[in-house]
Structure formats: structure tokens, C-alpha cells
Amino acid sequence: MTARPQKKQPRKILVTSALPYANGPLHIGHMLEYIQSDIWARFQRLRGHEIYHVCADDAHGTPIMLRARDDGVTPEALIARMEKEHRDDYRDFGISFDNYHSTHSGENRAIAEGIFAALQDGGHIARREIEQSYDAVEKIFLPDRFIKGECPRCGAAEQYGDNCENCGSTYTPAELRNPVSVISGSAPVLKSSEHYFFRLSNFSEFLKEWVGGGHLQEDARNKVSEWFADGLRDWDISRDAPYFGFTIPGESGKYFYVWLDAPIGYMASFKNLCDKKGLDFDEFWRAGSEAELYHFIGKDILYFHALFWPAMLHGANYRKPSALFAHGFLTVDGQKMSKSRGTFIMARTYLNHLAPDYLRYYFAAKLNHRVEDLDLNLEDFVRRVNSDLVGKVVNIASRSAGFVHQNFGGKLGGKLDDETLFTEFTAAAGTVAEHFEQRRYSRAVRVIMDLADRANRYWSAARPWELAGAIGEGEGGGGAREKLLAVCTQSLNMFRILAGFLAPVTPALAQRAGDFLRVNLSAAGGWGDLQTPLLNHGIAPFTPLLARIDHRQVCNIVNDSRDAAAAPGAASGTATTASAHEPLAAAIGMDEFTKVDLRVAHILKAEAVEGADKLLRLTVDLGFETRTVFAGIKSAYAPADLEGRLTVVAANLAPRKMRFGVSEGMVLAAGPGGGDIWLLSADAGAPPGSRVK
């Protein structure tokens, strides 16, 4: 499934992000989705389209009521406080919502009541007596998520009353085995009450056609097809008092279930924006609208968005989404986020230590268009940000700027040194744009970083420091001076393209880079501006655009997260086995470090080691002798892939006797592990035996 193809004329697009629940702060798992949707919205603005990105707090339900009671405040006071915290986190993470609202609003009440009335008039609402789980201790009907027990399908323990996180099955709380109330710990009892039901089964044929019409990703569509096979169940859309939400018109003590008015919050937030900006609400929401509507959601709420939501809209004669974009969960260091290990990281805790662009970039570098989980590997996070953003991209600007100001009064030249290379950079705009459009952010980042590598190779080959030296010594005449200006002009124009391509991902970096270059890299419709080079153009004095991440900053985030979880009054939770981020090893002096003799080695032969899962036996040529080294890189390389390659070996490491033989050195490689381990290529440019300095 793909988004709508790019048109030449501006498109009208409405983008929404799933509504965060208003009973607690945001964590970095939340930010995965908002960063994903924000990158897409920013990209569409750069392309010159009319796009609106809206969201709101999901402010209703029993959990809100109970949290407010525990805090000794009214639900209204609680959701007002949470909304401010959420807004602050979004702002500081660079999330560019055009409007942020609340489901506890006049717009949401009016639209919810209108949709309910339309569904009722259409014969899609039923009333019937049901038995519900009731906490006799707390005297409250229990929401599905306030009941835990064993999954009736797979038997997994500690599952909520509506769906199983282990096998993905959906069910009713009455089907749970050995259920208990999360509130009091008592076994719930059954109590009768009359409820309203949305007849989802009335829309079975419509939904099959809609789901099969290209509105879902392939893996999401396959999951929804499983639910069709099980048969669509009518949906209980009412709740009994006590409850915090909207009362059902004409009823006393009956409320709309939070999941009825929560997705309507998308419409309400946009309606609020329309009233403030004079926009036409119906142009985007009426049946048959030509505008585009996209929802970014987590895979855990796919059932509501792929079935209930389009059925509700269809029954009330509103337009349906153009597409749903579902994403997976965030893990940290390969495991579920853990409070006890310090990897359950709140958005604000992260912001207290690191700039948002770092996390935005890392997420983008790993996000694709599929419904897949994403892992935040903390070691890889530090390495990739420092290597890519600082070492490759920002480094181009920092090295060029000094020469321009010292020799040319801060003004770029009137021509490029290599127009063909510049054209190749600008030609990549189409590929990068297509990857962004299809939400293949990792591919877009890969293309951008390949260009950054080319820019740095160009700089090294041009050797501008030698040109500057020739000017300073009066050698080479005007030729060296003209060449140096052309090289710096070329490099800064390539930097501008890279920063412009990255603008949807790293908006703060784009702002600082734009200030330095004295251009607006985030202007609406500015994507096309990158095709024209900056010539005879003045630049500002260079100031650092981005600092390297210090490993200790990440350690501090983990430590603060662990301390917050252990603090009195912190929310309780089941710890997982996520690994804590290890502190830095003890510092060593330069004298100790220089004792390590690093040598380039030519891999002559590579063999699998019988009985070893990770090891390969390498025969390497150090130029002066041949050695056998065992290396744990089997997960990334087949033996045939290694023969003829170069690597770096710690040559003066004492031989180590292993079960499989003696290893006469240590191979050095880079990467987070698994399939991502990198050695030198065969054309790395250094002969075997060369020392690595």
C-alpha cells in the first residue's frame, strides 16, 4: 500500500497523529509516532502542498477519573495540566502541529452527538441488557483495561480484558480466565445493565471492500483479514456512571465510551482550527471529498481505526481515510522499555540531556513503511548520530566556513568547482522525495548519507588546506585563490542540499544551518529552491551547529529514568529484562593507548569454526607475517564474503588459547552487532602491514 502519488498541483492534505491519553506524561515510545508523522507533514510543506497536521489529548474515561481522584483534583484540572505538559513536550521535540486540542471540548461533543444520531437514524445502534464486570469493593463497572487475567486463546498471564499482547486476540472481559480488578485486586462480579451497541456487523461488506482498497499497509491488511475470518462483533459504545466523559443525549448516568469520541477528536481538532483560520471543514470531511486524509497510528489500535472508525464515518455520511499508516512498538536495547532498568525514558527526561534532533534522526534512520517494531540501541544511537550528523554533514560546513571568512570576506564565489557533481546532488532530490512520500525514511537517510560521503571525499581530494597555504605563501598566484573559493563554494552548496534534504528530520539543525547560510531551508515550497546554487552569496560567521553526543549524557538519561521509577510515588510497573546502559569504562592515558599496535591486514582465508555459533577462523597477512585470528563476525559475513577484504588487527595482543585453537590477535570492526558489523573494503587504500594512526 502506498500513499497517493505526487501531483504537480498542490494537494490538500489533513494528517493526524493518534491521541495521547491525558492521564500521564509522554515517553519516547510516544515520540516515535509523532516524529514519524511530523517528518511526513514537514516534507509535504516543503513540497508546497496545503497540509494540516492536527492532534489532541484523549481526555475521557475511567482512568482519568481515577487518576484525578488519586491526585485530589477534578478531572478537568488533571487534563488541563496534562495538556500543558504534552504541548511543552511536543514543542520542544519540534513537532509542528497546526492545531492541538482536547476531546473534552465543545466541538467534540457536538460532532460525537451528531454521528451518534446519524447512526441511530440509520438503524446501526442497538440497545440491550448485558452483564458486565463490576468491582463490588470500589462500586464501579470495570473498563476492559482495568481487568487482568489469562488470555482465553493462548493462556498468557497478565493480559488485559480486551486484547492479548502475546497472541493479538481480541475478546470480552467475561472470556478472561481468572480475572481480577486492577483497582482493588478483588475478583470482579457480573452485574446487569442496559447498553448501547454499534452494529459493526452491518458494515461487513463495506469494510471488506474498504480494507481491500489499498488503504492499509500489506501487513496491516493481513491482520485485519484475520478479524474478518473471526466475524465482526457489535461494539459496546456506552458506559455507566461513575464515568468522565460526554453523557448520551436523553440518558441519565450513561456516557459515550471513550473510544467512540476519541477518533472523533481528529475532526474536532480540525474543526477548532477551521474556526480559528477560516478554513472549510466540509471540504476535508464531507463524503466524496477530494482532499487527502491520513492517520498515523500504533499497531495496537489498528482494530479501532481499520474497522470501527471507517464504519462510523460511513454510517454518518462522512468521508473515509485515504490511508492508515501503522507502526510498531519501540524497544530499547532489544527489549521492552523497563522502568527498573532505566530504559523507560520519558520525553522530558530525554530533553533534559540531549537535543531532539538526535532522536529524530535516529528514528528516521530506522523507520520504514511497514508495521515493524523499532529498536533504540543506545550504543548505536551515539555512534550513528556522531558519525552521520556531526562527522559527515556538519563537518562539511565547519571546514569550509573558515576558509571563506579568512580569505573571501564571508562571500561565496560566482561559480562552482564541479557543476556535474552539484547536478548529481540535486538530481537525488527526486529519489529522496519519493522515499519520504512513501515513509521509507531509512532509505531517504541512506541516500543523504551517501551524498555526504561523496561531499567529504570531494573535499579531501581537493585539499583546500594546501590551496590556502599556497595563497598564504604567495605561491600559485590567483589560480590557487580562485580554486579555493570554487572548492568552498562547491562544498557549502552541497552542505546546503544535505541540510535541506534533512530539514523534515532535523528541523533545529535546518534552522541553524539556514541562519549560517542566510537562507530558509524550511520554507513552504522550498524543496525546489535546492536546485539553484548559492553564488556570490554572503554567509554568516560559523558557530557550531551540532555537538557530538557524550556517552555520559546517555548514561545520565538512563540513570535519571531509573531514579524516577524508584522515587516515592512513582508509577508501579512490571520490570522486564532490558539491559541497563553500562557506564564508561575507566579512563586510560595516551601512553597506554599508544601501546596498542593496530595494523591493516589482508584476509587470505576465512573458515567456519565447527561447534562455534559466532566465530570464524581468519588467516590474515600482516605484510610481515601470516597469522590465525578468531573473530566473532559470523552473523554478518559468510566466509566467502571475507576473502580478499582488508581489516584492522590489534597485532601486539598476546596470543589467546581458545577451545578451537590459538588466536594471534584481534580483529577490529564497527557496528551494533548482529548483521550490522563492518570491516574495511578491499580498496581501503592502505597496504597490509600499514600502521593505523
Structural features:
alpha+beta, 21 helices, five-stranded parallel beta sheet
Characterise the protein shown here:
The longest helix is centred in the middle third of the chain and has 31 residues, at 378-408. Residues 1-7 and 569-587 have low confidence and may be disordered. Strands 3-2-1-13-14 form a 5-stranded parallel sheet, sandwiched between helices. The chain is globular and about 90 Å long. By secondary structure, it is α+β, with helices and mostly antiparallel strands. Helix 11 (356-366) crosses helix 15 and helix 16 (464-472) runs antiparallel to helix 17.
Which structural class matches the secondary elements? alpha+beta
* Termini gap: 50 Å
Q: Oligomeric state of the chains? A: single chain
Number of strand segments:
26
Spatial order of the strands forming the largest sheet: 3-2-1-13-14
Radius of gyration: 29 Å
Largest sheet: 5 strands, parallel
Helix content: 40-55%
Mean pLDDT: 89
Strand content is 15-25%
Number of helical elements? 21
The geometry reads as globular
Low-confidence stretches: 1-7, 569-587
